[in-house]
Amino acid sequence: MEPIYDVEVLVPSDRMGDVMSDLQNRRAIIMGMGSTKGFEVINAKVPLAELNRYSTTLSSLTSGRATYNMTFASYEQVPSDVQDKLLKAYEDQDGDE
User: Fold this and answer.
1) Per-residue CA distances from 41 to 15, 81, 88 (Å)
2) b vs e for 58-77, b when ≥16 Cβ sit within 10 Å of the residue's Cβ?
3) pTM of the predicted model, to two decimals?
4) N vs C: which end of the chain shows fewer Cβ within 10 Å?
5) Spatial separation of the C-alpha atoms in residues 92 and 42, rounded to whole Å
6) Under a CB-based contact definition with an 8 Å cutoff, are residues 66 and 80 in contact?
7) Are residues 67 and 20 in contact, defined by beta-carbon separation less than 8 angstroms?
8) What's residue 50's pLDDT?
9) Which domains does the chain have, with CATH numbers?
10) Confidence at residue 32, expressed as pLDDT on a 0 to 100 scale
């Protein structure tokens, strides 16, 4: 099981594509989009493990013009391909010791 967070990102319109691509690379599930006060709003569910250093990446992608907030949503089953990678990494690490 892994923690899943609701993430809301406020991003300038001209950087929307870059931020969407980055979120999808982080195994995000886009729940909806909208706009408010000159910004695009992206609502997504993202595993906590994929949010490591997200603030730095978001700042880099948008030249510091985007903000985000995150709230715990639930625990969900880890996808089997990710489980396989984690088990392989654990076995390799355990074998080195």
Assistant:
1) 12, 30, 37
2) beebbeeebebeeeeeeeee
3) 0.84
4) C
5) 38
6) no
7) no
8) 93
9) 2-96 (3.30.70.240)
10) 96
DSSP labels for the chain? -EEEEEEEEEEEGGGHHHHHHHHHHTT-EEEEEEEETTEEEEEEEEEGGGGTTHHHHHHHHHTT--EEEEEEEEEEPPPHHHHHHHHHHHHHHHHH-
50 closest CA partner among 17, 85, 16: 85
pLDDT of residue 97: 64
Task: Please state, as a whole number, how many other Cβ atoms lie within 10 Å of the Cβ of residue 44.
Answer: 23
Q: Supply 95's token pair.
A: 């074998």
The Cα–Cα gap between 15 and 9 comes to 11
